[in-house]
Amino acid sequence: MNEKLHAALKRQSRLRRDGCEILDEAKLDALLPKRDPNAHKGNFGRILILAGSVGFTGAPVLAANAALRAGAGLIFVGVPEAVYPIVAQKLDEPMVFPLASDEAGRLNTRAIPEIVSRLENCDACLVGPGLGRSPAILDVVGAVLTHAACPVILDADGINALEGNIDILGQAKAPVLLTPHDGEFRRLGGDPAPETRYASAKELARRWGVTVLLKGHRTLIVSPDRTWLNTTGNPGMATGGSGDVLAGIILALMGQGIEPATAAAAGAWLHGAVGDYCAQVWGEYGMTPTDIIANLPIFLK
Question: What are the structural domains of the chain?
């Protein structure tokens, strides 16, 4: 047996012994809420996405469309005013609104009052995809954590803003989900090496009372009291935009009332399962994150 494969199988076996749960289609079906025939759009989650900047207009579009296909009822997308015309033109169903931006086309601190106001009526919030890095982004992240009464996902640049400032997680009033890849995990002080990633993610979750979705070949979802090992997905998903799609799926599930850690596990399984289907149809070289969004309803159905 290939030495690397043997080592990976040993780690997976150890994680199972350590109490990692494995999600499958039957468990996911039991998790998804059944829809009341008398329901309206407000019953399926009011979600807020804060994303995008000059040069990164695809991130809010991918996240919003993924959330739409995952069943979110009302989707509000706040983007820097510098890119508002581009993003608004790409999105029909989600409601896009402009926020104050700086000269580089990133969110400005002047956007914070509008963001705080929007948070008051939301069931879940995503902060980070394509926001870029600046002191103002840290202020935005801090404002969301301080004021949000709903669960918050910090993804991409929402995580990068925590580098050297991770203590602001202690200000959070509501549950927080972090969705780092290996590089972002290092910026949080974690160690993504194969033999240490589980223990390191567990320590981060325990110390700050958050859930950590650590992306990788076998994505780990670690909360202070539960852990999942995801078994779906393939290398064809290792492309720009795939993480935005994952964040959007999880956000929609959270907005529909699934608690954050469980929504993260369910979203990771769905994202990977649809990705595996896309790899079969188009191949790992040719598949795209947009293919995952387009085929998500087939799996949800």
Answer: 3-23+40-180+188-300 (3.40.1190.20)
